[in-house]
Amino acid sequence: MTNSVNEIRSNVPEFTVTELAFSLRQTLEENYGRVRVRGELSRISIPGSGHMYSTLKDADAVIDAVCWKGNLAKLSVRPEEGLEVICIGRVSSYPKSSKYQLIIESMELAGEGALLKMLEERRKKLAAEGLFDTARKKPLPFLPEVIGVVTSPTGAVIRDILHRLKDRFPRHVIVWPVLVQGEGAAQQIAAAIRGFENIQPKPDVLIVARGGGSLEDLMAFNEEIVVRAAADCSIPLISAVGHETDTTLIDYAADLRAPTPTGAAEMAVPVRSNLLAQIAEDEGRLVNSMTRLLSEYRHRLEAQAKGLGDPARMLENKVQNLDRLSDRINAAFRHFITDRQSTARELGARLRHPKDRIAEAERILANWSERMEQTGWKLLEKRQSQLKSLSAMLDVLSFESVLERGFAVVYGPGGELITEAAQAQSGDKIRIQFRQKKHVDAVVSASTNASAKKPATKKEDPGQNSLF
């Protein structure tokens, strides 16, 4: 029995965990190198790396799915939670977690029902943001000078639009060629709408057009980037995508929806011949109205003229009145001049010669100068007398006059005046001032009575007149 077990062990190959994991991965990729898987997207996650991680599920199973950043940008369907799709790719595994996963290379919607569900959810989301509000709609100009068209340059759509504009009212047309379906179409359409904002001449109205097609063919006009570009456009925009029964999300964001591209051209411009006829009709009505109005005013003028007098006689009266007023004005002016001349003569008689006035002013000035000089000397003498009196009083009241009688002034260590014996302490250095401003320094003795302190040691310094 032992030999059989050993024999079995020797016949079974041995793998490391890494070898087994990568061997299983290779087996999966070889056997499932290209598969189509239908399921519902869930748990979508796109980290900073730009790769998408999600799961595909149905009623009974779940499989992990990965879409690398390069393929994610090329998908014709924008991955959304709960969207039923068909993914094309290969089955592989992730060795570090021992899980198999679907590497998505392309994606498409699983049936028209799923597509309509996705569009309805997107419509509700954009409507909640206010992109379809009526208040955002702009009116179309009556007669635009420049019309911008966003469409394919090779289809029948642009020919139909140009032909209809030529029939109705030829205008300057600028075509921005774009893809209208397939990969990159939505980005080109959105870029064209935004690009018309920055060109010169700037269009007065914009037409975004495409012929009919299936729901999948019109998907570029349902993309969020196109709808937002249409909603943000400052130029009045007409949406003409598909036939009358086709509805795309750009129709809600546009300022006006046309059933067909030809209908968009009809909305953009009026019929020139109709305008000319209308102008001619309005011109005739205007001429007739003016003729009737002039005739009416002529009759009214003639009727009012009959009530007026003879203009020549009215003028004669006015001329006569003017002559009389002219004579009165001349007489008044002469009287005014005579009166002013008389006043001037009277004032001239009152005037004095400037030399007389100057001489009189000099006499007055000399008189005041003499009086001021006398008053100044009197004031000076009075102030000198007061100064002498005050000086004598100051000498009498000065403490230095007291010193002359044998008294002295005592100052403390800090220069303060000592008036009582209690202010000096034993050992304090004091200064005594005698007559003729001489000072003596002294030290208060401890044995001396505080009420009659005298210098304990006395030594005269000829240079300082100090006592120690």
Structural write-up:
The chain is of the alpha/beta class. Among the domains are: 2-110, Nucleic acid-binding proteins (OB fold (Dihydrolipoamide Acetyltransferase, E2P)); 145-269, Hypothetical protein af1403, domain 2 (Rossmann fold, 3-Layer(aba) Sandwich); 399-468, no CATH class. It is built from 13 helices and 14 strands. A hairpin with a 5-residue loop joins strand 11 and strand 12 (417-418). The longest helix is centred in the C-terminal third of the chain and has 44 residues, at 354-397.
Q: Would you give the CATH topology of the domain at 145-269?
A: Rossmann fold
Q: Measure the end-to-end span.
A: 135 Å
- The ordered string of helix (H) and strand (E) elements is HHEEEHEEHEHEHEHEHEHHHHHEEEE
Shape: flat
Total number of β-strand segments?
14
Number of helices: 13
Low-confidence parts lasting 5 or more residues at pLDDT below 50? 447-468
- What's the pLDDT, averaged over the residues? 83
CATH class of the domain at 145-269: Alpha Beta
CATH superfamily of the domain at 145-269: Hypothetical protein af1403, domain 2
Strand order, sheet with most strands: 1-2-3-5-4
Strand content is 15-25%
How would you classify the helix and strand content by structural class? alpha/beta
Radius of gyration of CA atoms, rounded to a whole number: 61 Å
Largest sheet: 5 strands, mixed, barrel
CATH architectural designation of the domain at 145-269: 3-Layer(aba) Sandwich
Q: How helical, in percent, are the residues?
A: 40-55%
